[in-house]
Amino acid sequence: MRFGSFGAIISVTVLTACATAEAPRFADEMQPSAIDGYAKSELQEGDWSKAEQALLGADVAEEDQVFAKLNLAFVYSTTGRKDQAVAMYREILSGNDNPYALLMNGEPRRVKTIAKTALARLGVE
Asked: What's the confidence (pLDDT) of residue 37?
């Protein structure tokens, strides 16, 4: 699977947002250690093994876990583990959380929209 086909998904590692009814909280406004929980640097470097280890061992607040799951699903799909990626994307879709994530180009997208797009690219409906 090509990295470029999932470029929009990897971009959630750059800036992520936790949607609340009053004021969305963006990752760049959080403590640096919280941002590291999404394996941003490992993903940007394309070090899938380290990214997976970081995401699986991340101590991410419950309300932010959807972002780590999204990045982990990306790692699974990039490394040819389609079944695991599909399961993770479906878990995101079945959850109640649907916060915004900012793409690398600065455009906001709901995490469920990103998951649906990724599933379509994987050929899953």
From this structure: 55
